[in-house]
Specification:
Elements: H1 2-10, E1 14-15, E2 18-19, E3 48-51, E4 56-58, E5 66-72, H2 80-93, E6 100-106, H3 113-122, E7 129-133, H4 136-146, E8 151-153, E9 163-165, E10 168-172, E11 178-183, H5 189-205
Parallel strand pairs: 5-6, 6-7
Antiparallel strand pairs: 1-2, 3-4, 3-7, 5-10, 8-9, 10-11
């Protein structure tokens, strides 16, 4: 099942400036990720990274919270601006929801806390929205094995961007279980964001 889900997600992922090859999408009711909201399969592993504040960020601090995560890097000129803009809209839409957090994880270990702080300020992120950095091998493992999202070095000769990474926002429940993936950079980004917010409210209504 792990392989099936990663393959299915790969068809939906976009690299910075490049789109992953994809077959015709399956009907929603046939997709292996379509029922993750009701039947979560994966739990995000515990991780410790460095926050833009310069302090360690332990994912155990998210226990009991619902959070939305994405992967980006500060110098990305491809999908990242659109992706982070969608995260910003989710951030605005969840203002006042104390049990909701946002987590943006840099794929570039050169994104220091100072760089992330400047980046976060451009999107008016408050303390509910964490920007994290860490060692490359840790981030790659967290993306591919933890969140089940494609992440790879961009080895193309004419590559203008460092990485091929996901354009997904990932919804994670209070127990750390992945409940949904939402394409933030495709033509249905607005529709997907609305679906994420609807699913988020449903999860928040569940008993703690």
């Amino acid at each position: 099942m792990k392989t099936i889900v990663i393959v299915a997600l790969a068809a939906l992922l976009a690299g910075c400036g490049k789109t992953q090859p994809a077959e015709a999408p399956l009907p929603e009711n046939k997709s292996p990720i379509a029922d993750m909201l009701d039947n979560p399969r994966f739990t995000v592993p515990q991780f410790i990274l460095l926050e833009r504040s310069g302090k360690p960020f332990d994912s155990t601090s998210l226990r009991g919270k619902v959070f939305i995560a994405d992967f980006f890097f500060a110098t990305c000129l491809g999908i990242c601006p659109a992706l982070t803009s969608e995260m910003q809209k989710v951030h605005q839409a969840t203002a006042g929801m104390g049990d909701v957090r946002l987590v943006s994880i840099s794929t570039d270990e050169k994104d220091t806390p100072e760089v992330l702080a400047d980046y976060a300020a451009r999107y008016k992120a408050d303390d509910r929205w964490s920007f994290l950095t860490g060692k490359k091998d840790e981030i790659f493992k967290l993306s591919t094995e933890g969140f089940k999202l494609v992440l790879a070095d961009n080895d193309a000769i004419d590559a203008k961007e460092k990485f091929i990474h996901s354009g997904m926002m990932v919804l994670v429940d209070r127990e750390g279980k992945i409940r949904g993936y939402y394409d933030a950079v495709g033509p249905d980004a607005e529709k997907n964001r609305e679906r994420l917010l609807k699913d988020l409210k449903r999860i928040l209504a569940d008993k703690k």
